[in-house]
Amino acid sequence: MAEDDAPRPSVDDESAPLLNGDAPVEPSFLQRLTASTEELTPLSKVLALIALILLILSSVFIGLFAGAQTRLNSVLDTPIPTVTETQTEVRTDTYTVTKTAIEEHTQTWTATKTWGTTVTATRIATVTASPPEKTPDKGDAICISADCIRLSAAILSNIDQTADPCEDFFQFASGGWVKEHPLPADKGLITSFDLLSIENKRIIEQILTNPPLIAPSPADAITLSKLQTLYGSCMDEGTLQERGENPLVSMVEELKILFEGGIGENHLSAKDDQRIMKELPPKGLTAALAWLHSKGVEVLFSFMIDGDAGVDPDAMTVWVSQPDLGLPSKEYYEEEDILELYTSVLARIFLELSPQPATPPPAPTPTQSPWPWPWPRPTPCDCPGDEPELPPAQNRTIQAQKLAERVVAFEQAIARAGADLDFLQGDPLGTYNPVPFSNLTDSLPSISFGTFFSAFALRSFPERIILTYPPYLKDLKEILDYTPPQVLLGHFTARLVLSYTNYLSTTTELWQAKRKLTEVLSGIKPGSMTERSEWCLGVVESALGFAAGRPFVQRTFAGSAREKGTKVITDVISAFKHRLPDLSWMDKKSAKAAAEKADAIRVKVGYPLSPNTTDDVSIARYYSLVPIKNETFFENVLSAQVADTIRMWAKVGKRRDKEEWEMIPSEVNAYFNPPANEIVFPAGILRPPFFSADWPSYLSYGAFGSVSAHELTHAFDSAGRMYNQQGKLEEWWTNTTSAAYDERVKCISEQYSKYWVDDGKGGKAYVNGNLTSGENIGDAGIALSYRAWEAQYNSSWPLGGEYLLPGLNYTREQLFFISFARTWSSNAKPATALQRVRTDPHSPPRFRTNGPLSNLPEFAKAFNCSVGKPLNPPPERQCHLW
To answer: Is 316 helix (H, G, I), strand (E, B) or coil?
Structure first.
């Protein structure tokens, strides 16, 4: 320890006086008394002590009386003032508020206040007797703490004060944020959600890289070791470079062996291959499919395990739908420039996987195929019609290009066969098609689904499954009938490589091939790289999210956060129920049923109980299936994915676990699950700029209240309303109410279909109002959040819950909407914006801000927007729902 840092001596050891000077000190009365040489009797000592105590008490009472009398005389000598003041307020009403100020005057105000209008109020002060300990009113207190100053500065920095809030509230509330957050070269989009997500990741990083001060329990020690090992193996770029592409190449080889297992020996002709594919359902195809699906690579079809919403929402069964493909949506498969790019990327992948022969290959014999892996022998045709045969095997580049073209054509056919996203997202009745299990095998005879399901260790096959779009399976059968095996294997290989390439070293050809596709589709700068630690923390959350969530919750979700966050949610639910009788389009019977559904919604806040984030053993047991080892990053990720697949299929035939979550605690998001009738809010989103237990209510209800209202109203959006109080699919509104509701939904869909983003090519890409309908209805829930804030205002204000922030020249009502809008702050490149318009059921952030506010009279009133402004259109052009 440095000399200057040595501990200060105890005051008991100080030799110097606290005040300078050498004047002698007069001994006190007690010192003189104790120093007396005369011996005092015990009675004398007692009497002397009593006298001393009485003397001290008398002095105290005299001082208190004199001070009180002085203050009273001062007040009585002060003339009673009458003051005329001019104010500007948001609230429009006549009211009386009695306040006790610090100077102990009671002030009674009576005024009619309208925002934007000068109002004159007369204050008459009258003196009343008030006890000194009376707590001053906190209603209009201005917080000047460091936290409040920082919060105020953050709000101000978001705002673009040159923008008209009635023209473009997104620009007004987030224009400053956009200016201060230019897009990094490696990202096509950055939002307030993303920034908070990065903050959450950094908290997890601190947990993983700093040893705990207190030794963890044995179970927590195991969990922490897995987290640290996975993160460390991801950050070990040297080992990743040494291993190169070997981990993924080994997987591709295994896929090839499984696929060819049921096709026959390599010396079979192309005609024989096609005959086997059509007439003898190959076990190899089924085995390859099961193996891919176990690794999370869903080819040909996808599976979801959820409740049978039409019969018993808690009975977990198998749902079958169409798969994801190499391009984000079917629209991309109709664009020549994107198809050319995608084909070139697949050609690079196939070329890289094709070994370079050291010497010219020998002439083929009758029992030996000249075609090196991964190229099965050529066929005269890969689809109906005539095509020339492939070039000789030595020309690997041409082979790779030709196979890539055929795989892209195959995926294009699959994309065209699938349903549109707006149908899959918005029609729960249309996507509920239960059929006997046997129908699945009958639809696709080339696949043995009994064998497929057996691979996932199901105890018994479900008696029936649910198809989301039956025509897809019929079209898929026809596509498979004319698709040669090598094209099918090429597609499987492409899907596997694109799914796992990210976990290779960035120096590999496979990684760089996929990166080229990502750069173009997202519009990011070629060669740019995301910070490795940020990406690796995302991998940790994805693979071991509940394990990372346990210490994250302990670190960030203490105090009253859960209690206050839950109160916001329940206040929003109450506001919804109070609003129902006033909805002109909903009759009493439907309103009663809607209130019952709102009461039945399960509210989950912060963290799950399955696995139990509060229990170290529960978390350790949940991840017991995931072996994590040093220097095997690729295998670590693979193990986590396989464990997730096992858990998913283990649900088949069981009852719903009502404590289970679909999101991890650190996630910056929330969701509504229709069959479970629950709304869920992870701890990750209960942080600024969405929520703080210390914020004034107008900020909390503006931000997190709008999130809460969004998830609540999903229970009554165009899809969610089809599920009743128990999560069962049925029409539980009256026909009259349903018809009136559909008219309002149509209005909202048409409104959002007029919004557009720049497609990056000089054109406009319009929002799909049908695809985004449910989310737009959810965003309209801001009206409920505003009413929830109003309802609690009178009880919150006197307790200081609506305190003001320094330097903000905005009313509480205005700050409510500013708080709402700043959660949607974002910046996007045109390519990413286009991709999201095509694939995302959410509207772009600008329209998630402006869209719902343009239908809200309370917003127009708060900012005094004249009729005809974009955010205050004429009433006949507004879409009112809640």
So the answer is: strand
Residue 139 has a pLDDT of 63
Spatial contact of 119 and 88, defined as CB atoms under 8 Å apart: yes
Give the pLDDT band of residue 457 (cuts 50, 70, 90).
confident
Among 61-70, 203-212, 252-261, the range scoring the smallest mean pLDDT is: 61-70
- What the chain holds in terms of domains, given with CATH numbers, is 70-137 (no CATH), 152-208+534-650+671-877 (3.40.390.10), 251-357+368-503 (1.10.1380.10)
Residues near 173 by Cβ (< 8 Å), separated by ≥ 6?
Answer: 158, 159, 160, 165, 817, 818, 821, 822, 825, 849
Query: What string of DSSP letters covers 675-742?
Result: TTTEEEEEGGGSSTTT--TTS-HHHHHHHHHHHHHHHHHHTTSTTGGGB-TTS-BS--S-HHHHHHHH
Res. 97: pLDDT tops 90:
no
Q: Residue 678 in contact with residue 602, Cβ under 8 Å?
A: yes
Non-local (6+) Cβ contacts of 278 within 8 A are: 446, 481
Lowest mean pLDDT of 120-124, 292-296, 526-530, name the range. 120-124
Tell me the C-alpha distance between 458 and 665, whole Å. Answer: 30
CB 719 within 8 A of CB 426: yes
Write down the pLDDT at residue 16.
35
Tokens found for residue 200: 């959450």
Looking up tokens 């496979």 gives: 510
Strand partners, 758: 764
Helix (H), strand (E) at residue 156:
helix 146-158
Token pair 């299936």 in the structure block, residue: 625
The C-alpha R_g of the chain, in whole angstroms, comes to 35
Alpha helices in 506-649 (DSSP H): 509-522, 532-556, 561-579, 588-600, 616-622, 633-649
Of all residues in the chain, the percent with pLDDT exceeding 90 is 70
| Extended strands (E) in 351-463 | 433-436
Query: Residues 6-29: what's their mean pLDDT?
Result: 36
pLDDT in tens, 723-744: 999 999 999 999 999 999 999 9
* DSSP structure class, residue 610: B
Tokens of 850: 């402006």
Q: Which amino acid is at 880?
A: H
The mean per-residue pLDDT over the stretch 439-456 comes to 88
Altogether, the residues listed in the chain come to a count of: 882
pLDDT in tens, 388-398: 454 445 588 99
Name the residue among 635, 673, 365 with its Cα closest to residue 500.
Answer: 635
pLDDT at 377: 37
Q: Where are the beta strands (DSSP E) in 71-144?
A: 82-87, 93-100, 105-113, 119-127
- How far is residue 247's CA from residue 240's CA, in Å, rounded to a whole number? 10
Residue 676 has pLDDT above 70, yes or no: yes
- Name the 3-class secondary structure at 306: strand
Chain Cα centroid distance, residue 550: 18
CA separation (Å) from 728 to 117, 313, 720? 52, 6, 10
Judged by DSSP in three states, 174 sits in helix
Please tell me the distance from the alpha carbon of residue 701 to that of residue 533, in angstroms, as a whole number.
Answer: 34
Give CA–CA dist 655/676, Å, rounded.
Answer: 11
Q: Is the per-residue pLDDT at 110 higher than 60? A: no
CA-to-CA distance for 436 and 449, rounded, in angstroms? 13
| Token pair 């993924």 in the structure block, residue | 248
At 335, the pLDDT band (50, 70, 90 cuts) reads: very high
Is residue 207 within 8 A of residue 555, CB to CB? The reply is yes
For residue 410, which phi and psi values (nearest 5 degrees)? -65, -45
Residue 436 phi, psi (nearest 5) = -60, 150
Query: Which letter does DSSP use for residue 299 in this model?
Result: -
Torsion of CA 138, 142, 145, 149, to 10 degrees: 150
Nearest 10 degrees: CA dihedral of 181, 184, 187, 188? 60
Residue written as tokens 């100077």? 103
Question: For the whole model, what pTM was predicted?
Answer: 0.79
